[in-house]
Sequence to fold (489 residues):
Amino acid sequence: MSNFFVSSIGKKFVLSLTGLFLILFLVVHLSVNVLIVFDSTGKLFNQAAHFMDTNPLIGIIEPVLAIGLVLHLVLATIITAQNQLLRDVNYTGNKRYQKSNTRENSSWASRNMYVLGTVILVFLVIHMINFFWKIKVTGDPLLNEATGLEPGVKNAYALVTGLFVQWKWSVLIYVIGAIALGLHLYHGVWSAFQSLGWSNRKWRSILSIIGIIVSLIFAGGFAFIPVFVLIQDMVC
Amino acid sequence: MKLTLKVWRQHSPKDKGRFEEYILQNASSDMTFLEMLDALNEQLISQDKDPVAFEHDCREGICGCCAMMINGRPHGPNAETTTCQLNMKAFKDNDTIVIEPWRARSFPVIKDLVVDRQAFEKIMEAGGFVHMDTGSAPEANTLAVPKGKADEAIEAASCIGCGACVAACKNASAMLFVAAKVSQYALLPQGKPEGGKRAWNMVAKMDELGFGSCTNTGACEVECPKGISLAHIARLNREFIKGGFITLVAEEE
Ligand code: SF4
Ligand code: FES
Fold:
């Protein structure tokens, strides 16, 4: 059994499980974020953000999430590095034929999961500096604006909308991040089930469709919110 | 038809190798790809040159020998077709065709287009067998196998071990091959006794021999001349994970 996690399939077992686990986080995150769209006073969102900030259960899940993310990153790096290493002999033919894996036989996303993952990671760091860090550690004047809720509730809504309105180009970063996430999920969702052995001829097409839906929901949802905030500001 | 052929030439495993270009004047669209190479070799022999070494045996798509990369596609452009079954109708007059051997760390080139695929044999030795009584064949209907399973097992068994899946894979992974070989036993009652450990042992061997791991791009399935499905890889994963837990609880086995 000790060999399990060293074997190629064992590593992907963990990669897949952590990947699916991280989707749970996306579900919670997007559900909270849509409140920005539905309530332009920001009350609902602030309440939800306050809950996420202070609820002890979330406090327990946060480090688990961080561990999941780190495991996902480390395994992806090991698997990708090993695979690159083992493909040390490649095709030399005419430029057009240098790659064995081409668009004729596989999707771009499936061939570039590590690149997409890196884009998402870079985005995540920027995103955490923008919000998580300010809310949890440094604070920000916008957070102290009145929320209309009980005292002590930070005005996360003002912080979020403030960023997109003040630095309009930041919306672009968020849209790029969302697209990278969508492409990652487009291949990642069905691929995770496949690696866990949870697929067959029939389920493969169902899982691919689920993957596409999941990818559209998260890419669309996360990209829509900053765009919406920007438009709302320009119209009102 | 007139063809320009860019062929990989390599005298020995140690030789660095290079592409050489040949013009073949009178290829015919009625030829198969291997017959076209035969014509090239006749031309080379008549010019006192070394003919191109390529592997072939059955020439009817069942032995898996005729491995080569044709214009960047294993076994050429046609779906579910081995090189020997590939018709020259797939090409046009004045085409340039680039022909290379499989490239993978575990498939070293022996000469020209011929690679050493013994790694596949070693994987088979690690678990691609069943134990059964010898003697005369038992009555065929004594062991009932549901139709769906039998069909799936037969599809898996149609893998000819050609290595196109490895050749096509960006990770040089042999998962489709191993999956087909594990599936053909896992689905049938005869394969059950070794079931728990077969996937485990074959995958361990595959990893050890320097094949990469599967990232589910699906390139192998598209390029496989026998249309082996990725569904078999899911089954292999299942068998392997199950095998992992079996060894966990039953260490003494
Ligand atoms: S799975 Fe397909 S491509 Fe791979 S060795 Fe078998 S027949 Fe060839
Ligand atoms: S020569 Fe036997 S499969 Fe092509």
Summary: The radius of gyration of chain A is 21 Å. The helical segments of chain A are 8-38, 43-54, 56-86, 108-111, 113-138, 156-166, 170-195, 201-235. Residues 201-235 of chain A form the longest helix (35 residues).
